[in-house]
């Protein structure tokens, strides 16, 4: 049985592949594919009031090589930043009480 981290890596790869290529190149996300991925896969983390120009700005931040698409490396770096943000946010929280055994 796969461990949780293995499942998470597989989910990241499969999710990227599910959305990439809908507009042509299966190795990159265009802005529309990225928008759909964010809205459907991270709905509670994507504000519903984001405008098209907000997605364009987000795309330009992720698109480090400025080719107007987000490749898998750029996508993974964005997820790493998201994980870092969550880790930093929660590291100062008081610890949960231990689970009763």
UniProtKB/TrEMBL annotation:
Stretches assigned to the EF-hand domain: 54-85
**A cellular-component GO term for this protein:** Golgi apparatus
Q: Gene3D superfamilies attached here?
A: EF-hand (1.10.238.10)
Could you give a GO molecular-function term held by this entry? calcium-dependent protein binding
Superkingdom is Eukaryota
InterPro entries in the record = EF-hand-dom_pair, EF_Hand_1_Ca_BS, EF_hand_dom, S-100_dom, S100_Ca-bd_sub
One Pfam family recorded for the sequence: S_100
Keywords in alphabetical order, please. Calcium, Metal-binding
- The membrane spanning regions, by residue number, are none
What is this protein's record name? S100 calcium binding protein A3
Native species: Neovison vison (American mink)
């Amino acid at each position: 049985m796969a461990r949780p981290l293995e499942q998470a890596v597989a989910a990241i790869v499969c999710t990227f592949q599910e959305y990439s290529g809908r507009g042509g190149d299966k190795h990159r996300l265009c802005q529309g594919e990225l928008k759909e991925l964010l809205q459907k896969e991270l709905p509670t983390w994507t504000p519903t009031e984001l405008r098209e120009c907000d997605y364009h700005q987000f795309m330009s931040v992720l698109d480090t090589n400025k080719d107007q698409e987000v490749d898998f490396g750029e996508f993974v770096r964005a997820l790493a930043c998201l994980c870092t943000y969550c880790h930093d946010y929660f590291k100062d929280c008081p610890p949960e009480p231990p689970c009763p055994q």
